[in-house]
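Figure 6 in text form: structure in, sequence out.
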């Protein structure tokens, strides 16, 4: 059974940083691309980033240059470093097996205050 468990969310002020983690199990993590998606209140799910099995990462325009995705294949953990956060980054963040979030964890809430 695929399990994705996010953690690390919380409240942070504008311009601050936060690191999210996603512990995974039930599949061969090191062979799969992984994704971060988020959903702000009243909005649709938004693709944030994906990181390929070899570590190359790609980002949505709204987070490019501020967020960094990484992975530890030995531990089957995915990370998302949020830097220079903005109020519009407030959302529930999910790690996912696809960029549309069809298979995702329960999420971790990030709230950015000004």
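Output sequence:
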């Amino acid at each position: 059974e695929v399990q994705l468990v996010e953690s690390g969310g919380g409240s942070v002020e504008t311009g601050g940083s936060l690191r999210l983690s996603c512990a995974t199990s039930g599949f061969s993590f090191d062979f799969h691309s992984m994704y971060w998606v988020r959903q702000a209140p009243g909005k649709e799910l938004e693709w944030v980033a994906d990181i390929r099995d070899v570590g190359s990462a790609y980002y949505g325009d709204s987070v490019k240059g501020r967020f960094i995705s990484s992975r530890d294949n030995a531990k089957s953990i995915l990370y998302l470093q949020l830097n220079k956060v903005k109020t519009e980054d407030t959302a529930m963040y999910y790690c996912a097996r696809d960029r549309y979030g069809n298979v995702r964890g329960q999420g971790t809430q990030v709230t950015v205050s000004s």
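Caption detail: The CA atoms of residues 80 and 88 lie 17 Å apart.
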